[in-house]
């Protein structure tokens, strides 16, 4: 990218829009960048790229398997830098093609929007709740889960230059910009977004749940309870060192919270990283069962991954943790 | 038999219902401030004729096995489906205004929380395959006269799985199946590729073996006639390709771009509704659906048990994939409800053993895994059958969206994946399943069986048949020794401790091929006086956490997991999740760390660090610490 992201802290932009703006910007300065979508360009915001570079956008219509194959074909012999997007959950349709893309040593970049509960009223058919699990199980994959538009732009830039299958998980709702435009991002490098000397527990969230964790930090501050909040930025590879160092500093207490099922996602990734550290107490919050249609804020509450960590029946109050 | 045109009163009543359905759709989506009213409006006459003229069903008992079945494959038109059932008297009209609310079963896309929904839709392209399963069941298993109707969108027809289903339907001569294509020209973000090129649709459907009619999708009389002809057609399924307009009946919105998924603006809704109301001539003339022709018996839900115990002796050598074939055949002996399908791998998965014994209950689905899973789901609806679908475990990745939707559909389908892991050897990574445990663990309703010998495989099949939700059984290619007595009892979520002593230093957990590697490691280490405890989890999900934790505590907190799978999402991470909140337990995980290659099975196990040699080294390493 020839210039830094153009957002101001506090501005509200959905990460899916951040993706669209970023890919369009990348395409402005590099003719090899092409994009494609599965008749969801108005949701994924890839239409921003299409509007600016119409002859480098391929509408693949409602055929996810073929889109991934076409992406792999376009990227072969390094003819193009490819960004293929759709709703996060519909990459499950193309999982065999993704599996084979790794065996093919492909460098395709994928973006799945409307991850987790964020599609709310449409219901479970549209909710991506297992995408981190399936991408983590792809050996050559890098998984970006940016939490604001600045880091989304950086993710797009990094993905374009990172070998292997890159997956960027974006969300539908608008969220605040939390990083300065000149913040440096790297694959496998987490960010500590909130800390103090009195932190009693480390909370790791991403996307929507990072913002929930920040809001929880604000709320708990009023009760003189302080929490450290980490944004992993990439789920794979995960910045184990930063996480371990900070969890040690918060008396070994860590909570992960994700807009995803329990299996295979952020929680299991963190667990894998820290399991053999002595003296760590670890709690995971995730979606436990198939959700239903409803407003996103209601769904986050029902599944226990909303702001109110404090009010949960589970013994998660930092003072109650052993 | 000749066609009798419905009388004018009936035709007018059908037109009126169509407009009522439009009005309901507008009101519903306005109340929820989200949804797809224009996608509903193009289908109004289709729904009216299907629900109030053509289909035979008991409106107060939607799930009755005698009823004609309807699948709304274009699931985003849910509001009009709900409206149809309201007009039929099954839903209270006032409930319609609770569309998409957190406490209403009228969700954004249909799920089987509702009695009139057999399979959840919303991920496009999956309804027709399920309809094929239902139609196949009706024609060949139930041998009943119920018919199956599936409505698809035109944008949806870009999905390859639609064409897998079309090929299947004509190959199996499913003349009790009707596919209705609502060709309203406009997709989600732009026009569908074929727009209103009706001839292209006609040629494609005909090329796939369908008896095809192109009709004016808003002309109720044409629809009545085409659907009547469909019923008379023998030996071929029918496709009704309906030319429609998105937003039909909505002035200024009909056939316009950019209205997909948008409720009517508040300041226009009332006017649009009044306009539709003014076209209704007999608002109070009810039309009642015809009742089904016969009474199909409810399914017998008695648990199905093997008639005889497994016939293996400890030490016999048999691959778990072959043991599956034997087990499936035995289950087929035990109950006529057991049916099986495969994706042209039956000689490798051994489902051909079932086929030889019960040929009329085996469905060859050819190389079309998505459709095979959909067909299995369709066959299992309304409990008509207990279905087992098999292929190489790696190829269930091809059908993962279908598996995901099967869970949302509350399906009880059983899926069996063979040739897992690097242990398949020379065929190489494209045929090796190394991420399937991750895939299936992330499905909320799934039970994951990973039996390690012939006896436990047979019991896994028996348990799967009687366990609700999706069941996945992971089988292996190589021959392995039988390690359990034929009388051994197995339960979901219960691990087996297969080696233990009073001086065990480490707990080693393996499964399938790696369980046998662990046993070999055990014997090797025992020679030097080093004892290890070996656990066979039997089910990876649910995992027997208490046995594992107890064993870990008895071995000073030392656990090694070893799996023929990638590091992420499999046995190792499942064990971590189980013990992660217990203090003092250290877990060392052995798994495949990168894309493998072709080679001899044992060479690959060594190369990727999951063989007996690797386990011995890992035990020595943790013991040294």
TrEMBL record, chain A:
EC numbers on record: 2.2.1.1
Reaction(s) catalysed by this chain, per the record, are: D-sedoheptulose 7-phosphate + D-glyceraldehyde 3-phosphate = aldehydo-D-ribose 5-phosphate + D-xylulose 5-phosphate
Protein name (Swiss-Prot/TrEMBL): transketolase
Tell me one GO biological process term. Answer: pentose-phosphate shunt, non-oxidative branch
- Is Calcium a UniProt keyword of this protein? yes
Keyword field: Calcium, Magnesium, Metal-binding, Thiamine pyrophosphate, Transferase
State any single GO MF term: transketolase activity
> Which GO cellular component does the record give, naming just one?
extracellular exosome
Looking up Pfam families in the UniProt record yields: Transket_pyr, Transketolase_C
Its job = Catalyzes the transfer of a two-carbon ketol group from a ketose donor to an aldose acceptor, via a covalent intermediate with the cofactor thiamine pyrophosphate.
By sequence similarity, the record places it as follows: Belongs to the transketolase family.
Transketolase-like pyrimidine-binding domain mapped to chain residues: 13-177
Listed cofactors? Ca(2+); thiamine diphosphate
Name the domain of life: Eukaryota
Is Lipoprotein set as a keyword in this record?
no
The family database entries (InterPro entries) matched by this protein are listed as:
THDP-binding, Transketo_C/PFOR_II, Transketolase-like, Transketolase-like_Pyr-bd, Transketolase_C
Q: How does it assemble?
A: Homodimer.
TrEMBL record, chain B:
List the EC numbers from the record. Answer: 2.2.1.1
Q: PROSITE patterns, from UniProt?
A: TRANSKETOLASE_1 (PS00801), TRANSKETOLASE_2 (PS00802)
Q: Name one Pfam family in it.
A: Transketolase_C
Please report the organism this UniProt entry assigns to the protein. Cyprinus carpio carpio
Q: Which Gene3D superfamilies match?
A: 3.40.50.920, 3.40.50.970
Report whether Nucleotidyltransferase shows up as a keyword of the record.
no
Protein name, UniProt field? Transketolase
- In this chain the Transketolase-like pyrimidine-binding domain maps to 318-482
Q: Could you tell me the superkingdom of the organism this chain comes from? A: Eukaryota
**Which cofactors are reported in the record for this sequence?**
Mn(2+); thiamine diphosphate; Co(2+); Ca(2+)
Q: Which UniProt keywords apply?
A: Calcium, Magnesium, Metal-binding, Thiamine pyrophosphate, Transferase
Which InterPro entries does the protein's record reference?
THDP-binding (IPR029061), Transketo_C/PFOR_II (IPR009014), Transketolase-like (IPR051424), Transketolase-like_Pyr-bd (IPR005475), Transketolase_BS (IPR020826), Transketolase_C (IPR033248), Transketolase_CS (IPR049557), Transketolase_N (IPR005474)
Kindly give the NCBIfam families that the UniProt entry links to this protein: PRK05899.2-5
Give the family per the record. Belongs to the transketolase family.
A molecular function (GO) held by this record is: metal ion binding
Q: Which GO terms describe its cellular component?
A: cytoplasm
How does this chain assemble?
Homodimer.
Q: Name one GO biological process term.
A: glyceraldehyde-3-phosphate metabolic process
In the record, which residues are listed under signal peptide?
A: none
């Amino acid at each position: 990218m020839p210039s830094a992201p153009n957002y101001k802290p506090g501005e509200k932009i959905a990460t899916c829009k951040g993706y669209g703006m970023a890919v369009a910007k990348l395409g402005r300065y590099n003719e090899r960048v092409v994009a494609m979508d599965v008749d969801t360009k108005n949701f994924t915001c890839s239409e921003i790229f299409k509007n600016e570079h119409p002859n480098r956008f391929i509408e693949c219509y409602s055929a996810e398997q073929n889109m991934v194959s076409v992406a792999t074909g376009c990227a072969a012999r390094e003819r193009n830098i490819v960004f293929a997007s759709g709703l996060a959950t519909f990459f499950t349709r193309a999982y065999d093609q993704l599996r084979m893309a790794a065996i093919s040593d492909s460098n395709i970049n994928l973006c799945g929007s409307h991850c987790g509960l964020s599609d709310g009223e449409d219901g479970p058919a549209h909710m991506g709740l297992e995408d981190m699990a399936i991408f983590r199980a792809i050996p050559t994959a890098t998984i970006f889960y940016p939490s604001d538009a600045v880091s989304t732009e950086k993710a797009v830039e990094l993905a374009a230059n990172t070998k292997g299958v890159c997956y960027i998980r974006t969300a539908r709702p608008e969220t605040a910009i939390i990083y300065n435009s000149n913040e440096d991002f790297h694959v496998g490098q987490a960010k500590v977004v909130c800390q103090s000397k009195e932190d009693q527990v480390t909370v790791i969230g991403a996307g929507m749940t990072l913002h929930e964790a920040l809001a929880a930090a604000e709320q708990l501050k009023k009760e003189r309870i302080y929490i450290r909040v980490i944004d992993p930025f990439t789920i794979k590879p995960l910045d184990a060192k930063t996480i371990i160092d900070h969890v040690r500093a918060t008396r070994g207490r860590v909570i992960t919270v994700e807009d995803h099922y329990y299996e295979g996602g952020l929680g299991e990734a963190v667990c894998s990283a820290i399991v053999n550290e002595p003296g760590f107490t670890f709690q995971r919050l995730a979606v436990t069962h198939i959700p239903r249609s409803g407003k996103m804020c209601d769904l986050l509450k029902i599944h226990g991954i909303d702001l109110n960590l404090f009010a949960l029946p589970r013994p998660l109050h930092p003072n109650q943790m052993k | 038999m000749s066609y009798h045109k419905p009388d004018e009163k009936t035709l007018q009543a059908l037109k009126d219902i169509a407009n009522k359905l439009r009005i309901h759709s507008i009101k519903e989506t306005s109340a929820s401030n989200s949804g797809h009213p224009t996608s509903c409006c193009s289908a109004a006459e289709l729904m009216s004729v299907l629900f109030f003229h053509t289909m035979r069903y008991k409106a107060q008992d939607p799930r009755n096995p005698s009823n004609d079945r309807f699948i709304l494959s274009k699931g985003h038109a849910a509001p009009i489906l709900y409206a149809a059932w309201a007009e039929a008297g099954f839903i209270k009209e006032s409930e319609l205004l609770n569309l998409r609310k957190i406490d209403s079963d009228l969700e954004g896309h249909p799920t089987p929380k509702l009695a009139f929904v057999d399979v959840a839709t919303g991920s496009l392209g999956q309804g027709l395959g399920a309809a094929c399963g239902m139609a196949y069941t009706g024609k060949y298993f139930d041998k009943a006269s119920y018919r199956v109707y599936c409505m698809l969108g035109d944008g949806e027809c870009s999905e390859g799985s639609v064409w897998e289903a079309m090929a299947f339907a004509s190959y199996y001569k499913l003349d009790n199946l009707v596919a209705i294509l609502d060709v309203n020209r406009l997709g989600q973000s732009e026009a569908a590729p074929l727009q209103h090129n009706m001839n292209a649709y006609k040629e494609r459907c005909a090329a796939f073996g369908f008896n095809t009619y192109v009709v004016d999708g808003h002309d109720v009389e044409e629809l009545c006639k085409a659907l009547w002809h469909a019923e008379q057609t023998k030996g071929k399924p029918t496709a009704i390709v309906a030319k429609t307009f998105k937003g039909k009946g909505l002035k200024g919105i009909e056939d316009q771009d950019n209205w997909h998924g948008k409720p009517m603006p508040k300041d226009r809704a009332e006017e649009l509704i009044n306009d539709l109301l003014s076209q209704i001539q007999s608002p109070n003339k009810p039309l009642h659906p015809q009742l089904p022709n016969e009474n199909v018996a409810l399914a017998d839900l008695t648990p199905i048990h093997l008639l005889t115990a497994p016939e293996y002796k400890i030490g016999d050598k048999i691959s778990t994939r072959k043991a599956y074939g034997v087990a499936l055949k035995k289950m087929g002996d035990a109950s006529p409800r057991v049916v099986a399908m495969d994706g042209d791998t039956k000689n490798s998965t051994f489902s051909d053993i079932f086929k030889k014994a019960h040929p009329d209950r085996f469905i060859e689905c050819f190389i079309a895994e998505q459709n095979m899973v959909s067909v299995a789901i369709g066959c299992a609806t309304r409990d008509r059958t207990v279905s087992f679908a098999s292929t190489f475990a790696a190829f269930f990745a091809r059908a993962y969206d279908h598996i995901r939707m099967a869970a949302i559909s509350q399906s009880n389908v059983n899926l069996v994946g063979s040739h897992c892991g690097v242990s398949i050897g020379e065929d190489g990574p494209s045929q090796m399943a190394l991420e399937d445990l991750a895939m299936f663990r992330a499905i909320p309703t799934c039970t994951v069986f990973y039996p390690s010998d012939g006896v436990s495989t047979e019991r896994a099949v028996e348990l799967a048949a009687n366990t609700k939700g999706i069941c996945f059984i992971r089988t292996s290619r190589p021959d392995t020794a039988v390690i359990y007595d034929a009388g051994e009892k197995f339960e979901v979520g219960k691990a087996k401790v297969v080696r233990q002593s009073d001086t065990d230093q480490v707990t080693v957990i393996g499964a399938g091929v790696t369980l046998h590697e662990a046993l070999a490691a055990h014997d090797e280490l025992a020679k030097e006086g080093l004892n290890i405890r070996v656990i066979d989890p039997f089910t990876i999900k649910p995992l027997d956490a208490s046995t594992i934790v107890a064993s870990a505590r008895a071995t000073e907190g030392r656990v090694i997991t070893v799996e023929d799978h990638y590091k992420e999402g499999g046995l190792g991470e499942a064990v971590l999740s189980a013990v992660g909140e217990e203090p003092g337990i250290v877990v060392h995980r052995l798994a495949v760390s990168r894309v493998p290659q072709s080679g001899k099975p044992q060479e690959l196990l060594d190369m990727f660090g999951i063989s007996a040699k690797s386990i011995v080294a890992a035990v020595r390493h943790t013991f040294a610490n």
